[in-house]
Amino acid sequence: MSIQNEYLNGLMERVMKRDPGESEYHQAVREVLSSLAPVVNARPELIREGVMDCLVEPERTIKFRVPWEDDEGNIHVNRGYRIQFNSAIGPYKGGLRFHPSVNESIIKFLGFEQTFKNSLTGLPIGGGKGGSDFDPHGKSDAEVMRFCQSFMNELFKYIGPDTDVPAGDIGVGAREIGYLFGQYKRLRNEFTGVLTGKGLTYGGSLARKEATGYGLCYFTDNMLKNAGKGFEGATVVISGSGNVATYACEKATQLGGKVVAMSDSNGYIYDKDGINLELVKQIKEVERARIKVYVDRKPGAEYHEGCVNIWNVPCGIALPCATQNELPLEGAKALIRNSCFAVAEGANMPSTPEAMDAFQESGVLFAPAKASNAGGVAVSALEMSQNSMRFSWTFQEVDDRLKTIMADLYRNASAAAAQFGLAGNLVAGANIAGFLKVADSMLAYGLV
Ligand code: NDP
Q1: Can you give the pLDDT at residue 131?
Q2: Per-residue confidence at 80, pLDDT binned at 50, 70, 90?
Q3: Side-chain-side CA neighbours of residue 200 (13 Å)
Q4: What mean pLDDT, rounded, does the chain reach?
Q5: Whether residue 199 has pLDDT greater than 70
Q6: Measured in angstroms, how far is the CA atom of residue 267 from the centroid of ligand 1?
Q7: Which of 24, 292, 370, 420 is the S-S candidate for 117 at Cβ 3.0 to 4.6 Å?
Q8: Residues 127, 118 contacting (CB under 8 angstroms)
């Protein structure tokens, strides 16, 4: 993945020198800059006016301590983040991640990616991301509640329905959003759409829970149809078993695919008869247990330790839906060897740069996360609209809008790639289409 422009190369070097330890952030910036050379070659004012330099520096980084008490009365201190990356086209928007691996580099890469993704949806939302190194696994509901309340005691100062609207991500689902929203409401004495992914009884949108996974399959379906293929009759492998993976599995099955493998961070299950999703939901959503429990209840299914080996399972379509860099070159080679014809990213940056190159060089249809997982944030923006109107759309209305947004997104990414001489390259197309709207808005405001 090389950057074919001298200025952008220098910029990449400056980014690495300024924050040397931030490998995930460097990876995300390199991936975008490597697509933008033809754009800045055609439009040198983007460099002259400072847009490119501003683009790689967050508008604001907020970092805070989060003290909380466990059920035994012990005090713990975690670290919280909110990175308000770019508000050129709307209020900052992006999820909160609670996972022990969270650090500034990861939140920065996610906020940077989010800026382009949100732009691609065609909706007026800027880019941001946040989270904490807190691990909700194994904590009681009361402990999670106390943590979320403490997190919001600081975060509420910086967010608002017209300023910054967080949502869920890894480790932040309906339970956490409820505690966070409840605390914001107490502190502000306001009932506003300050978070998305809310429960349906207090301002949430129908189809938000399903949106990222469904949107991923709608995008993939557009990409497949354009190549004369489809989900119908295809074997599908999906990594993860959280929110994105679950609803990707549901929609892929509805579209005629057969999902045979899913995973969590310990290992993967293989079910040659097709995954029983109701059982997965019971294990992961209701019991919050490990995926390996599946094989105790489903005769004939297999469990394998080590989540990364899931890519050895033969399939036509692979949907990585767990976390960043979960699909390395070895996994890509195994998929290609087994005649996989399409890879669509549900997680953020799940394929390593080497894996992405391998897919593109071997002619595998490849949908990059920025485009293919944008359905979640798109429906979050629809939740914001419904909150502003104090009105709710039906499931069908939201789902129809989601389908239209994902089809437009596919068309726009394809068109942008073709316009800059890179037809068929959705990685470049998504980066370029997402970038142009943000860059033109930044130019319009002048340098500040
Ligand atoms: P969840 O917390 O609901 O699920 C995450 C899943 O990934 C779990 O099965 C988890 O397993 C697994 N996982 C986490 N870390 C690792 C790891 N290091 N290796 C292997 N598996 C791992 O998160 P989401 O489904 O919400 O998010 C998944 C991905 O999708 C993330 O990259 C997120 O940024 C992205 N995304 C999410 C959106 C949303 O609307 N939720 C929107 C757009 C992107 P375990 O239980 O063992 O931890």
Answers
A1: 98
A2: very high
A3: 8
A4: 97
A5: yes
A6: 14
A7: 370
A8: yes
Predicted confidence at residue 2, as pLDDT, reads 87
Provide the token pair at 401. 């809008």
Which ligand 1 atom is the nearest neighbour of the CA of 240?
9
> Which element (helix H / strand E) includes 76?
strand 75-86
The span from the CA of 234 to the CA of 27, in Å, is: 32
Calpha distance 372→347 (Å, rounded):
9
129 is catalytic: yes
pLDDT digits (tens, 9 = 90+) for 10-38: 999 999 999 999 999 999 999 999 999 99
Instruction: Report how far residue 107's alpha carbon sits from residue 96's, in angstroms, rounded to the nearest whole number.
Output: 9
Q: What is the DSSP string of 242-270?
A: SHHHHHHHHHHHHTT-EEEEEE-SSEEEE
Q: Ligand 1 centroid vs 296 CA: distance in angstroms?
A: 24
Q: Which ligand 1 atom minimizes the distance to the CA of 208?
A: 40
Q: What is the CB < 6 Å shell around ligand 1?
A: 168-171, 173, 212, 240-245, 264-266, 307, 321-323, 326, 346-348, 373, 376
How many Å lie between the centroid of ligand 1 and the Cα of residue 129? 15
Concatenate the DSSP letters of all residues of 268-290 into one string: EEE-TT---HHHHHIIIIIS---
Cα of 280 vs centre of ligand 1, distance in Å, is 15
Task: Report the pLDDT value the prediction gives residue 447, as an integer from 0 to 100.
Answer: 72
Q: Are 27 and 349 in contact (CB under 8 A)?
A: yes
Q: Name residue 365's beta-bridge partners.
A: 342
Helix (H) or strand (E) holding 413: helix 395-419
Which structure tokens are listed for 45? 């004012």
Q: Of 129, 258, 284, 370, which is the active-site residue? A: 129
Q: Which of 294, 340, 343 lies closest to 321 in space, CA to CA?
A: 343
Confidence of residue 1 (pLDDT cuts 50, 70, 90): confident
Pairing relation of β-strands 164-167 and 92-98? parallel
Task: Quote the pLDDT of residue 65.
Answer: 98
Residue having the nearest C-alpha atom to atom 23 of ligand 1: 170
Place of tokens 């904590």: 139
Residues 135-146, mean pLDDT to the nearest whole number: 97
- Which residue, judged by its Cα, is nearest atom 3 of ligand 1? 242
Atom of ligand 1 nearest to the CA of 373: 43
- State pLDDT tens for residues 423-445: 999 999 999 999 999 999 999 99
Whole-number pLDDT of residue 189: 97
Q: How far is the CA of 322 from the centre of ligand 1 (A)?
A: 4
The best mutation among 99, 293, 323 to test binding of ligand 1, ranked by most ligand atoms within 8 Å of the C-beta, falls on 323
